[in-house]
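Troubleshooting: if your tokenizer reports a length mismatch, compare your output against this known-good record of 341 residues.
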Amino acid sequence: MDQAIWMQLGGQKSTSAVPGRPFDQRELEEVSTNRWHPDPKAPIYQPLNIPPVGFVSHANRLPDRTVQQVSSLSSTRPSADEHTKDVIAKAFTAHSNVPLVVPVPDTGYIAQTAINPTKLPVPQALLLVLDLNGTLLYRSRASSAYKARPSLDAFLAYCISNYSVMVWSSAKPHNVSAICSRIFTPAQRQLLLGEWGRDTLDLTAEQYSAKVQVYKRLDRIWNSEAIQRAHPHFAKGHRWGQWNTLLLDDSVLKSSAQPYNAVVVPEFVKGGNKEQRDGADVLGQVVAYLEAARMFDNVSCYVRKYPFKINGCCVRDWASSSPRPAKTDSESDSDSGGVRF
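Known-good structure output:
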């Protein structure tokens, strides 16, 4: 499909292109929508900026065309109605400088996650990376007002008391700062290892200003000397890595580079979501999951073997400040590792 569009616009022919064939409705819908996903069989486009070390790309670079250049090719492409021309021009304008390469896990990372996790006698120190919008709260792009996810205050108090915590959001830095000042107390905020925003996602100027799918590569955190020095046992040689870092986010795509270090929760939207309407305490279940995960030597192994899911194991009893087992059948117990509190 993409090669056919490029051929129609004056590019080189490919064996899959059909010269002179008009666009059908399905193809127009594909061009006019932004369907980017990490399916390795699907076309992935190289961004104009050079990807960081560690990226693996199976993509062909999208031609550097502007609306003016596309229009100048009218003599080489078949005639089309004005709507078709407009769709094509907008598609090239929207995507020529914007899409990012979808990162994939390297072989070393995957090999580490394939090892069975070992139960520890005492919980290990964890670095908890928190997303904001859609995970902890709902905030529309046009407003500074937000709606907190149920039990947010209790959840943040628990996290600050038990883990090393930082915030990593795709929002712009001033928005991240504004939200953090409202959901954390001043004392809690001083304990955060960092408040990272859109400027830390390795975006070009065009990508920074556009609504694009972004990716949170945890190795950027692990390569930060300041954050590594914040490990409570840094002086003893301990470091942050895939064995002790968890990202709490509502998007599985954002953790494409380290998928087994992510605790993915249902997106919290305006008015709540299906899980919330059903009365599920999402953040309470996250707490129970974190309690279980930190008892193993490698959380990425644990997440791979026992991925987080709603009503999968335990819920948080906020009144008693301790997790309690959910009412699940034996199959659910097996899926969640059989961990009970």
